[in-house]
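Protocol check, entry for the methods section draft. Step 1: assemble the input record (protein sequence plus ligand SMILES). Step 2: submit for complex structure prediction. Step 3: store the structure tokens unaltered in the notebook. Ligand used here: zinc ion. Step 1 record:
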Amino acid sequence: MPLVAITPLTQGGYETILNRFSHNTLIAHEDSLTELKTIFSFRSNTFYSNPINRLSKIKDFPLFPNTSLKGIAIKLLLDGQAGGWIGNKNSRVQTFFFSDVIDSISDKIDNSEDFCNELTTKMRHKIETFNNLLTPINGTLKIDSRNILPYWGQHNISSKLLSESNIINIKILPDCESFDMFTHVPTATRRDSFHYHMLKKEKVHIILVGDANYKKNICSCQACTNYNCETVILTDKKRKELLNLI
Ligand SMILES: [Zn+2]
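Step 3, stored output:
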């Protein structure tokens, strides 16, 4: 995800790969891409599950004084939790992802129906672009830093990253294990364990991880326990430097 959309790990992720691993072959498995593509493949078409459904409500109610269509849209994005508890992980992710889409709509549009139609069309388009960026061609995922999508905010990366073409090629391999092997693993860690297991089965030399708590998710099967490789943890240090936070 940090390579195709702006996150706090994007700057560090690119610099680590380009500076330290430019001569290595990078691999990932098909399921890692499938997992990313499910982020914006909404479970059901309800107000709570699907932000496009939520944003479609804009045309159903009148504007209050001192509110704008863009302001209402942001609040609807955040309001994605049954019970009125705002800011659960899904609505936060969706707000980061779609707030730029709201920004991109012309301020001249003051009709709620036109605003809504333009917004939902652009939201669908952004999901499509995200999925296309994660679609390999001939088994290789070619990532160009100029195509990084807005997500957590431009303040996380240097402007250079978007203006220069930094190409990262990742070989996408078919899954080399059945997911069934992990049905006994708790849901929260199941997919990560599956991915770590497959990487070790491929006998990789280094695993790049974006999760500081990755040790909890490492597969504990005999083969994985016996196979040791270097683990490099991506951090948000580079973003903090850009923001003068350290
Ligand atoms: Zn294993």
